[in-house]
Amino acid sequence: MSSRLATLAKFGLWTFILLMGSSIILAVIASNLDYVMTPYSAESSAENGLSHIKDILKRSGFETRIIVSDPESIVGLGEPVIYTIFGPTLDYDLQAVITLLSLLQNGSSLLIVDDFGKANSLLNTFFSLVDPNSMFQAFFGFKPIEANITKFSIYINTSAVVLDAGSYWKNPANIVIEDFETSMGILSSRVNRVLARFATTLFLNIELRYLNGTKKSYRVPLPGRLGIMRTSPYSWLETDFESIVKGTATPNPDEYGGVPFALGFALEVGRGRIMIITDPDIFTNEAMKIAAQNGFDNEQFVKDIFSWLGGGERRVVIFDESRKAITPENPLFGVAISIKIITFFTRYWIVAPLIPLIFIAFFIAYIPHQFKKEIRIFKITRKKEGAPPYYGRYLWYMYRGGFREAFKIIMSDFRRAIQLKMGITTSDWNEILEMIQQRRPDLSDDVEKLRHIVDVWNNIIRGRRVKLKPEDYLRMFETIKYIREKL
Fold it and tell me: Which CATH number fits the domain that encloses residue 119?
């Protein structure tokens, strides 16, 4: 038994070292080749990347850093930071939220920018930890006399896109924001028009218990007057996503509208500051390019909000990429897995002191002992039957949510890759398959295989029960990788 544990420990340590070493080398190479394509990544120079934002901050005197582990990894900095979260695709757990709260208490600031991602997992946990009556009074300046607030939270509405018929660029989904709140001193007079694309809005979830014992719940848009930026009164919440993409969306009586919607919100919590913005596409490289060409103030908007978040100081800006859908092709993938493993174990006070002792024993006792033995250049190994060579790349997704979650994330990334490589704008899989069939007749057999995979994906997205074995998922992963290489 002890020999098996020793073998497992040695295998784990060597795997960790090789994974970290190769990932760091790949990350350095990729940074020079402009390779990283993860959406809303500060390292990505693609249209949906944020590399231009990072350059703006550096020119403004800010120091920028990227983390691919949990927020605990920056606690040791010992100074207030600006912690930014753009378009997360994985949930934030309770431990991460508590860490962020501790950063706020120490004077750091938090910027959350999301529309249809997983930021609500962070917001819901955050508001569950604070007193709802105090939060209600902080928002509205009073407390109901005849009722007790039992729940109060602000969340990002992911069921609709905000369209504005009164102020837009080319399409009502491309909102031009011209109404800003100036009383908080966040935005300067140089910010007059900001371009937002496919934005959503902030909602309030409030539960009241009246003195007579009755309870009532309210889910309503955050009043526009509380936002730091608002749409025009000719806005509405559009739920027909297909019509939005085609540019044919029009308001109807069943959709909420006719009022300004808040696309951003700011709050001071003790010594810290929080800002929530409901459209990461305001900050992308593509938006910055369009803004520069058409006279929008997106760049100045970035400078102003980071100046406010930093309290006028040039603080370190942390880009949290630990909850991004970092795909297996991304060189940061191995680093993310490795650091995630370390931070996961170091959360526990019993385990944390053992980690450095294990590494010391490994490098002082184990490695020198190995060189006393005969060194073999070639070692006979046997590959596990039925497992693809890149199986280990999916361990991160397996850890977070199983094969189903891995499959959904990989399919979403695969669709983006097809759209970029073939210049396809539609997001409908059936239309994508037809275009591939027309443009690449040599892939006709592969398209039929992909059609079956898309059917599985559609059933999973619609919540239908799908019975698949792990080897079925692995077979589909192999097919996706094969087709992607041929595109």
Answer: 3.40.50
Q: Beta 262-269 vs 202-210: how paired, if at all?
A: unpaired
Reply yes or no on whether the pLDDT at 390 is more than 50.
no
Establish if 362 belongs to a structural domain.
no
Tokens 């901050």 belong to residue: 57
Q: pLDDT of 440-471, one tens digit each? A: 888 888 888 888 888 888 887 777 777 787 78
Is it the case that residue 146 has pLDDT exceeding 80? Answer: yes
Answer for the pair 241, 191: CB distance below 8 angstroms, yes or no: no
Judge whether 196 lies within some domain: yes
- Total structural domains in the chain? 2
Strand-strand pairing, 235-238 and 161-164:
antiparallel
Asked which of 320, 350, 380 is the last residue of a domain, the reply is 320
Residue tagged 């607030």 (tokens): 149
> What mean pLDDT value characterizes the chain?
80
| Measured CA distances, 177 to 174, 261, 274, 355 (Å) | 9, 11, 21, 50
At position 205, the amino acid (one-letter code) is N
Q: Is 325 a member of any domain?
A: no
Range of 421's domain? 390-487
